[in-house]
Amino acid sequence: MLKKILGTLLLIITTGVHAANPQLEALFESDWQWTLAHAPEMSTTTGDIRYNHKLTSTTLAAQRVCNKHQQDMLREALKIGRGTLSGQELISYEQFVYEKSLAAEGAFLYPYTVQPVTYLDGPQISFPKLVAQTPFNNAYDYHSYLARLHTLPAYVDGIIEELQQNMKAGWVAPRIVVEPVPAQLRELRLHLTEGVLYQPFQHIPGNVPKPGVFAQLGRKELEEHVAPALLKLENFITTQYLPACRDSIAASATPGGMAYYQYLIKAETSGNATPQELHDLGMTEVARLHLEMQNAMHQAGFKGSLAEFRKFLNSDPRFFYTSGNDLVHGFSDIVAHVYKALPTLFARLPGSEVGIRALPLAEAEQQPMAAYHGASDDGKSAGYLAVNVANLNTRPRWRMETLALHEAVPGRHLQISIAGEDADLPRFRRNASCPVFEEGWALYSQGLGAELGLYQDPYSKFGALDDENLRAARLVVDTGIHALGWSREQALAYLNDNTSGSPAENGAEVDRAVVRPARSLAGKIGQLEISALRRSAGDALGKRFDVRAFHNAVLENGPLPLPMLDEQINNWIAQQQPQPAN
């Protein structure tokens, strides 16, 4: 039955006005409310505080309930059918069915979380981030937080239950991505009353009554409930899970085999390209980009190899700010320039502009040079570019323009803001996540730099090519590791030979590829597809082609899987063609 359901997805999109099918709207809203109630962390990050006293249930039984819900939603959608739908309703329907089908397919391969704890995932990572995103404005917020702290032991018990099940089934993580976890848990546990988990109690607003009582209760929860739970997980991982972890690093080495990795490729890229096809594509793109990078190097008048040029760019003082404020102002100047030029490439801009602010030094470790932080769903907090002002000798100026385009405008901020502003769209679409679209658009946006008046010097131009080259190299490394038998050392050597990253940075790249298979494929695949659609539209429309209208046609329906985006743009092209006379 499941295979029959999974086979029913037909991606045919028609553009048009918002319609109203009460049955479909009710289905979308009931699923959204169920999701918020059963994923309280997501509810918090969207600005909905109703479930701030809870954490997601991590028990095996809860995951089975979630899997059943996804299948039930899929069946209900298929009962409605697409025959009477059009316009945005049809797009919403097809995206809903696509997402539920994908979830059902994943559960069919393995019904539980494959890697609930790694050095990039788990309560030692997610919980501090969640606290940093939680509002603390009144007594209600503090009562909710105390209740959430109280639930952490049950949350940890569920993770241990997951790990035990995975050990029985052979779905264990590579050892190298779990080895750092005990130390991470220990570090969090030993500094609970000094770190981010206790911070809300150190800065209680004046309108909150009895702040001393809240602070005392917070300390008690951390010491009596959170600390023992973290110690319990640390001991379990050290004594039981780590010894059971596998030496192999490939996703295809799991019980799911190559079918599991192929599913992950589909989930991240919304396509069915084989690992070998993606590997070969990456090799081709790296070769092309190296030629363009050499041209930029020659334009700079540098005599030497690419490796020597990279060393020069990463060491010469002229390429680095000596003040964190200057670095932030430099990004602000770039973004201000882009905003002036955006109307030449976009017919519609979002109502909110992106902010620029320095990342607090306490949060700077292991964070990138600049990263986008999205606005809350309720609009109370605006999106902004967080600039890392620590270790200024690792923040080269020649990377700033491409980072601003990727992370701020017209990259993430433009894409996310336009999707979130259409109140007529169902909330699952306004908050949708489609890696190949989101990462692809951000990387495509880097390529708009010259049209926006940037990349006027060979160094910034090299920076854009260098960053794109890393995305291409990720295709090679990810597929090499997970499908073609590459060792960690082989993947590291490839990055050291073909990218600008230091051995330490490239080692982190490899380890991220190990812990999150196929995740790094999305950007390059999405960028190439959006670029191909632009060429196709230009060829078909000739002088009728309006790049401003094209860009908004790409963005106006939110993040879509590539087959749906292709269909929508093809429909848009048809609408721009001269219509036959009656």
Please tag this protein with its features:
single chain, 582 residues, mainly alpha, globular, disordered N terminus
Description:
- It is built from 25 helices and 3 strands.
- The protein is mainly alpha-helical.
- It has a 3-stranded mixed sheet.
- The chain is globular, with a radius of gyration of 24 Å.
Summarize the structure.
This protein has helices spanning 2-6, 22-38, 40-45, 60-80, 87-109, 123-132, 139-150, 152-169, 181-190, 199-202, 211-244, 257-269, 275-299, 306-313, 324-341, 400-407, 412-421, 427-430, 435-446, 458-483, 488-498, 503-515, 522-541, 547-555, 562-576; strands at residues 355-358, 370-373, 384-387. It is mostly helical and 582 residues long.
| Euclidean distance between termini CA atoms | 48 Å
**Approximately what portion of the residues adopt beta-strand conformation?**
under 5%
- The percent of residues in helical segments reads 55-70%
Query: What topology, given as strand order, has the largest sheet?
Result: 1-3-2
Rounded to the nearest angstrom, the radius of gyration is: 24 Å
Work out the number of β strands: 3
Largest sheet data:
3 strands, mixed
Derived from helix and strand composition plus strand pairing, the structural class reads mainly alpha
The protein's oligomeric status is single chain
